[in-house]
Design brief:
Blueprint: H1 2-18, H2 26-34, H3 41-74, H4 86-101, H5 106-128, H6 137-159, H7 163-174, H8 182-209, H9 213-218, H10 223-245, H11 251-263, H12 267-292, H13 300-318
GO cellular component, one term: plasma membrane
Family: Belongs to the binding-protein-dependent transport system permease family. FecCD subfamily.
Main location: membrane
Length: 324
Amino acid sequence: MLILSLILLFICVIASFVFGSRVVGKSDLLAGLFFSEVESYGASVVRERIPRTVFSLFCGAALGVSGALMQAVTRNPIADPSILGVNTGAALFVVCGLAFLQISTAAQYIGLAIAGAMITAVFVYGIGSMGRAGATPLKLVLAGAATSAALSSLIGAIMLPRSYVMDQFRFWQVGSVGSANWSAITTFLPFLIIGIILAIIAAPALNALALGDEVATGQGVRTGVLRLVAAFAGVILCGAATALAGPIGFIGLLSTHLVRLVLGTDLRFIIPMSALTGAAILTISDVSGRLLGSPGELEAGVVTAFIGAPLLIFLATRMKVRSL
Protein backbone atom coordinates (compact mmCIF):
# COMPACT_ATOMS: atom_id res chain seq x y z
CA MET A 1 0.00 0.00 0.00
CA LEU A 2 2.85 2.40 0.86
CA ILE A 3 4.70 1.75 -2.38
CA LEU A 4 1.49 2.04 -4.40
CA SER A 5 0.63 5.33 -2.70
CA LEU A 6 4.09 6.76 -3.34
CA ILE A 7 3.90 5.76 -7.01
CA LEU A 8 0.44 7.33 -7.29
CA LEU A 9 1.70 10.46 -5.56
CA PHE A 10 4.65 10.70 -7.96
CA ILE A 11 2.30 10.40 -10.95
CA CYS A 12 0.05 13.12 -9.50
CA VAL A 13 3.04 15.44 -9.03
CA ILE A 14 4.25 14.94 -12.60
CA ALA A 15 0.72 15.49 -13.92
CA SER A 16 0.49 18.72 -11.91
CA PHE A 17 3.71 19.97 -13.51
CA VAL A 18 2.67 18.98 -17.04
CA PHE A 19 -1.05 19.71 -17.39
CA GLY A 20 -2.88 23.01 -17.30
CA SER A 21 -3.92 25.74 -19.70
CA ARG A 22 -0.66 24.89 -21.45
CA VAL A 23 0.58 21.30 -21.63
CA VAL A 24 4.36 21.15 -21.41
CA GLY A 25 6.62 18.54 -22.97
CA LYS A 26 9.39 16.42 -21.48
CA SER A 27 12.18 18.86 -22.37
CA ASP A 28 10.35 21.81 -20.81
CA LEU A 29 9.56 19.72 -17.72
CA LEU A 30 13.20 18.78 -17.18
CA ALA A 31 14.39 22.31 -17.92
CA GLY A 32 11.90 23.82 -15.50
CA LEU A 33 12.81 21.42 -12.71
CA PHE A 34 16.57 21.05 -13.04
CA PHE A 35 17.99 23.77 -15.31
CA SER A 36 17.25 27.23 -13.97
CA GLU A 37 19.38 28.86 -16.67
CA VAL A 38 16.94 27.72 -19.37
CA GLU A 39 14.41 30.51 -19.96
CA SER A 40 11.90 28.95 -22.36
CA TYR A 41 8.20 29.67 -21.87
CA GLY A 42 7.41 26.02 -21.08
CA ALA A 43 10.16 25.87 -18.45
CA SER A 44 8.86 29.03 -16.78
CA VAL A 45 5.35 27.52 -16.72
CA VAL A 46 6.70 24.46 -14.89
CA ARG A 47 8.50 26.68 -12.36
CA GLU A 48 5.26 28.59 -11.73
CA ARG A 49 3.47 25.29 -11.05
CA ILE A 50 6.00 24.05 -8.47
CA PRO A 51 4.68 26.04 -5.45
CA ARG A 52 1.11 25.21 -6.45
CA THR A 53 1.95 21.50 -6.53
CA VAL A 54 3.87 21.60 -3.24
CA PHE A 55 1.02 23.40 -1.52
CA SER A 56 -1.60 20.99 -2.87
CA LEU A 57 0.46 18.11 -1.44
CA PHE A 58 0.82 19.77 1.96
CA CYS A 59 -2.80 20.91 2.11
CA GLY A 60 -4.15 17.50 1.06
CA ALA A 61 -1.97 15.77 3.66
CA ALA A 62 -3.20 18.14 6.37
CA LEU A 63 -6.86 17.60 5.49
CA GLY A 64 -6.40 13.83 5.25
CA VAL A 65 -4.85 13.57 8.71
CA SER A 66 -7.39 16.01 10.15
CA GLY A 67 -10.23 13.82 8.89
CA ALA A 68 -8.66 10.69 10.41
CA LEU A 69 -8.24 12.42 13.77
CA MET A 70 -11.78 13.79 13.84
CA GLN A 71 -13.20 10.37 13.02
CA ALA A 72 -11.13 8.81 15.80
CA VAL A 73 -11.94 11.42 18.43
CA THR A 74 -15.67 11.46 17.73
CA ARG A 75 -15.81 7.73 16.87
CA ASN A 76 -17.82 8.76 13.85
CA PRO A 77 -16.98 7.16 10.47
CA ILE A 78 -18.33 10.11 8.48
CA ALA A 79 -16.69 12.89 10.49
CA ASP A 80 -14.90 15.43 8.31
CA PRO A 81 -13.99 19.10 8.84
CA SER A 82 -16.53 20.15 6.21
CA ILE A 83 -19.33 17.95 7.59
CA LEU A 84 -18.82 18.94 11.24
CA GLY A 85 -18.88 22.66 10.40
CA VAL A 86 -15.24 23.28 11.31
CA ASN A 87 -14.47 24.68 7.85
CA THR A 88 -17.39 27.10 8.15
CA GLY A 89 -16.19 28.30 11.55
CA ALA A 90 -12.76 28.99 10.08
CA ALA A 91 -14.41 30.80 7.17
CA LEU A 92 -16.46 33.01 9.53
CA PHE A 93 -13.37 34.21 11.35
CA VAL A 94 -11.57 34.89 8.07
CA VAL A 95 -14.54 36.96 6.89
CA CYS A 96 -14.53 38.90 10.16
CA GLY A 97 -10.81 39.50 9.67
CA LEU A 98 -11.38 40.79 6.14
CA ALA A 99 -14.32 42.96 7.16
CA PHE A 100 -13.12 44.42 10.44
CA LEU A 101 -9.36 43.91 10.70
CA GLN A 102 -8.26 44.26 7.04
CA ILE A 103 -6.08 41.14 7.25
CA SER A 104 -3.76 40.44 4.34
CA THR A 105 -0.90 38.13 5.37
CA ALA A 106 -0.88 34.33 5.45
CA ALA A 107 -0.11 34.33 9.18
CA GLN A 108 -3.17 36.49 9.88
CA TYR A 109 -5.41 34.23 7.81
CA ILE A 110 -4.07 31.13 9.58
CA GLY A 111 -4.37 32.58 13.08
CA LEU A 112 -7.99 33.61 12.63
CA ALA A 113 -8.95 30.40 10.80
CA ILE A 114 -7.49 28.19 13.54
CA ALA A 115 -9.28 30.22 16.24
CA GLY A 116 -12.58 29.89 14.35
CA ALA A 117 -12.06 26.17 13.74
CA MET A 118 -11.29 25.51 17.41
CA ILE A 119 -14.29 27.41 18.75
CA THR A 120 -16.61 25.72 16.25
CA ALA A 121 -15.23 22.24 16.98
CA VAL A 122 -15.77 22.70 20.73
CA PHE A 123 -19.26 24.08 20.16
CA VAL A 124 -20.33 21.27 17.81
CA TYR A 125 -18.95 18.58 20.11
CA GLY A 126 -20.67 20.21 23.10
CA ILE A 127 -24.03 20.35 21.32
CA GLY A 128 -23.62 16.80 20.01
CA SER A 129 -22.79 15.51 23.52
CA MET A 130 -26.02 16.74 25.08
CA GLY A 131 -28.49 14.14 26.20
CA ARG A 132 -28.19 10.73 27.81
CA ALA A 133 -26.58 8.97 24.84
CA GLY A 134 -23.69 11.41 24.60
CA ALA A 135 -21.91 12.31 21.36
CA THR A 136 -23.40 9.80 18.93
CA PRO A 137 -22.41 9.92 15.23
CA LEU A 138 -25.86 11.07 14.14
CA LYS A 139 -26.06 13.84 16.75
CA LEU A 140 -22.61 15.14 15.82
CA VAL A 141 -23.46 15.26 12.12
CA LEU A 142 -26.75 17.03 12.82
CA ALA A 143 -25.04 19.49 15.18
CA GLY A 144 -22.37 20.14 12.57
CA ALA A 145 -24.92 20.67 9.80
CA ALA A 146 -27.01 23.04 11.92
CA THR A 147 -23.95 24.99 13.07
CA SER A 148 -22.63 25.23 9.54
CA ALA A 149 -25.97 26.58 8.29
CA ALA A 150 -26.13 29.17 11.06
CA LEU A 151 -22.54 30.31 10.51
CA SER A 152 -23.07 30.49 6.74
CA SER A 153 -25.99 32.85 7.32
CA LEU A 154 -23.80 34.98 9.57
CA ILE A 155 -21.09 35.06 6.91
CA GLY A 156 -23.64 36.30 4.39
CA ALA A 157 -24.88 38.96 6.77
CA ILE A 158 -21.35 40.29 7.24
CA MET A 159 -20.50 40.24 3.54
CA LEU A 160 -23.62 41.63 1.90
CA PRO A 161 -23.18 45.27 2.99
CA ARG A 162 -19.45 45.10 2.20
CA SER A 163 -18.82 44.49 -1.48
CA TYR A 164 -15.04 44.62 -1.08
CA VAL A 165 -15.20 41.71 1.40
CA MET A 166 -17.46 39.75 -0.94
CA ASP A 167 -15.01 40.20 -3.82
CA GLN A 168 -12.14 38.83 -1.72
CA PHE A 169 -14.14 36.08 -0.09
CA ARG A 170 -15.96 34.62 -3.10
CA PHE A 171 -12.74 33.36 -4.69
CA TRP A 172 -11.39 32.02 -1.40
CA GLN A 173 -14.69 30.31 -0.52
CA VAL A 174 -14.66 27.99 -3.53
CA GLY A 175 -11.44 26.32 -2.36
CA SER A 176 -8.35 26.53 -4.50
CA VAL A 177 -4.60 25.94 -4.35
CA GLY A 178 -3.96 28.15 -7.37
CA SER A 179 -2.81 31.22 -5.44
CA ALA A 180 -0.10 29.39 -3.48
CA ASN A 181 3.34 30.95 -3.15
CA TRP A 182 6.50 30.09 -1.26
CA SER A 183 5.81 32.62 1.48
CA ALA A 184 2.42 31.07 2.26
CA ILE A 185 3.92 27.56 2.14
CA THR A 186 6.64 28.56 4.60
CA THR A 187 4.03 29.97 6.98
CA PHE A 188 1.86 26.84 6.67
CA LEU A 189 4.64 24.26 7.08
CA PRO A 190 5.15 24.51 10.91
CA PHE A 191 1.44 23.88 11.51
CA LEU A 192 1.56 20.85 9.21
CA ILE A 193 4.60 19.40 10.98
CA ILE A 194 3.23 19.98 14.50
CA GLY A 195 -0.17 18.55 13.62
CA ILE A 196 1.18 15.39 12.00
CA ILE A 197 3.68 14.76 14.81
CA LEU A 198 0.93 15.06 17.43
CA ALA A 199 -1.30 12.77 15.35
CA ILE A 200 1.37 10.07 15.06
CA ILE A 201 2.15 10.26 18.78
CA ALA A 202 -1.54 9.96 19.67
CA ALA A 203 -2.29 7.10 17.24
CA PRO A 204 -1.63 4.12 19.60
CA ALA A 205 -3.79 5.64 22.34
CA LEU A 206 -6.52 6.44 19.82
CA ASN A 207 -6.57 2.74 18.92
CA ALA A 208 -7.35 1.99 22.57
CA LEU A 209 -9.99 4.73 22.63
CA ALA A 210 -11.76 3.00 19.73
CA LEU A 211 -12.46 0.09 22.09
CA GLY A 212 -14.35 2.39 24.45
CA ASP A 213 -13.48 4.85 27.20
CA GLU A 214 -13.53 2.21 29.94
CA VAL A 215 -11.13 -0.09 28.08
CA ALA A 216 -8.85 2.81 27.21
CA THR A 217 -8.80 4.01 30.82
CA GLY A 218 -7.99 0.47 31.94
CA GLN A 219 -4.98 0.53 29.63
CA GLY A 220 -3.71 3.71 31.25
CA VAL A 221 -4.98 6.17 28.64
CA ARG A 222 -6.09 9.55 29.93
CA THR A 223 -9.04 9.86 27.59
CA GLY A 224 -9.77 13.53 28.26
CA VAL A 225 -6.19 14.62 27.56
CA LEU A 226 -6.02 12.33 24.53
CA ARG A 227 -9.17 13.81 22.98
CA LEU A 228 -7.89 17.32 23.65
CA VAL A 229 -4.50 16.69 22.02
CA ALA A 230 -5.92 14.81 19.02
CA ALA A 231 -8.66 17.38 18.48
CA PHE A 232 -6.10 20.20 18.74
CA ALA A 233 -3.92 18.53 16.10
CA GLY A 234 -6.90 18.00 13.79
CA VAL A 235 -8.12 21.56 14.20
CA ILE A 236 -4.76 23.26 13.53
CA LEU A 237 -4.28 21.10 10.42
CA CYS A 238 -7.76 21.88 9.13
CA GLY A 239 -7.63 25.55 10.16
CA ALA A 240 -4.24 26.26 8.59
CA ALA A 241 -5.18 24.51 5.34
CA THR A 242 -8.56 26.24 5.18
CA ALA A 243 -6.99 29.64 5.84
CA LEU A 244 -4.81 29.48 2.73
CA ALA A 245 -6.78 27.24 0.36
CA GLY A 246 -10.35 27.96 1.35
CA PRO A 247 -12.88 25.43 2.70
CA ILE A 248 -12.03 22.41 0.54
CA GLY A 249 -14.32 19.61 1.65
CA PHE A 250 -14.39 15.81 1.70
CA ILE A 251 -10.61 15.20 1.48
CA GLY A 252 -10.57 13.76 5.01
CA LEU A 253 -13.60 11.61 4.27
CA LEU A 254 -12.28 10.27 0.96
CA SER A 255 -8.72 9.58 2.05
CA THR A 256 -9.47 7.85 5.35
CA HIS A 257 -12.17 5.59 3.89
CA LEU A 258 -9.92 4.52 1.03
CA VAL A 259 -7.11 3.72 3.46
CA ARG A 260 -9.41 1.97 5.94
CA LEU A 261 -10.80 -0.15 3.12
CA VAL A 262 -7.32 -1.56 2.47
CA LEU A 263 -5.51 -1.40 5.82
CA GLY A 264 -8.27 -1.83 8.39
CA THR A 265 -8.74 0.31 11.48
CA ASP A 266 -5.23 0.64 12.97
CA LEU A 267 -4.60 4.38 13.25
CA ARG A 268 -0.84 3.88 13.35
CA PHE A 269 -1.18 3.08 9.64
CA ILE A 270 -4.29 5.10 8.80
CA ILE A 271 -2.82 8.47 9.85
CA PRO A 272 0.37 8.46 7.72
CA MET A 273 -1.38 6.78 4.81
CA SER A 274 -4.24 9.30 4.98
CA ALA A 275 -1.62 12.03 4.62
CA LEU A 276 -0.27 10.45 1.43
CA THR A 277 -3.73 9.64 0.06
CA GLY A 278 -5.10 13.09 0.89
CA ALA A 279 -2.13 14.71 -0.83
CA ALA A 280 -2.71 12.60 -3.95
CA ILE A 281 -6.48 13.26 -4.00
CA LEU A 282 -6.16 17.03 -3.74
CA THR A 283 -3.35 17.19 -6.29
CA ILE A 284 -5.20 15.11 -8.86
CA SER A 285 -8.39 17.11 -8.16
CA ASP A 286 -6.46 20.29 -8.93
CA VAL A 287 -5.13 18.78 -12.16
CA SER A 288 -8.61 17.54 -13.11
CA GLY A 289 -10.02 21.01 -12.54
CA ARG A 290 -7.45 22.51 -14.90
CA LEU A 291 -8.31 19.98 -17.62
CA LEU A 292 -12.10 20.10 -17.17
CA GLY A 293 -12.19 23.89 -17.11
CA SER A 294 -9.73 24.46 -19.95
CA PRO A 295 -8.88 27.07 -21.19
CA GLY A 296 -9.68 28.38 -17.68
CA GLU A 297 -9.85 26.10 -14.69
CA LEU A 298 -12.32 24.51 -12.30
CA GLU A 299 -11.32 25.04 -8.66
CA ALA A 300 -10.16 22.00 -6.70
CA GLY A 301 -12.89 22.51 -4.08
CA VAL A 302 -15.55 22.04 -6.75
CA VAL A 303 -13.95 18.81 -7.99
CA THR A 304 -13.66 17.30 -4.50
CA ALA A 305 -17.30 18.20 -3.82
CA PHE A 306 -18.39 16.38 -6.99
CA ILE A 307 -16.53 13.29 -5.79
CA GLY A 308 -17.19 13.56 -2.06
CA ALA A 309 -20.91 14.37 -2.02
CA PRO A 310 -21.95 11.09 -3.71
CA LEU A 311 -19.64 9.19 -1.34
CA LEU A 312 -21.27 10.83 1.68
CA ILE A 313 -24.72 9.95 0.35
CA PHE A 314 -23.60 6.36 -0.20
CA LEU A 315 -22.17 6.08 3.32
CA ALA A 316 -25.29 7.58 4.85
CA THR A 317 -27.76 5.37 2.95
CA ARG A 318 -25.90 2.09 2.36
CA MET A 319 -23.80 1.70 5.48
CA LYS A 320 -24.79 1.58 9.10
CA VAL A 321 -23.43 4.81 10.59
CA ARG A 322 -22.05 3.56 13.87
CA SER A 323 -19.29 4.46 16.30
CA LEU A 324 -15.79 3.43 15.30
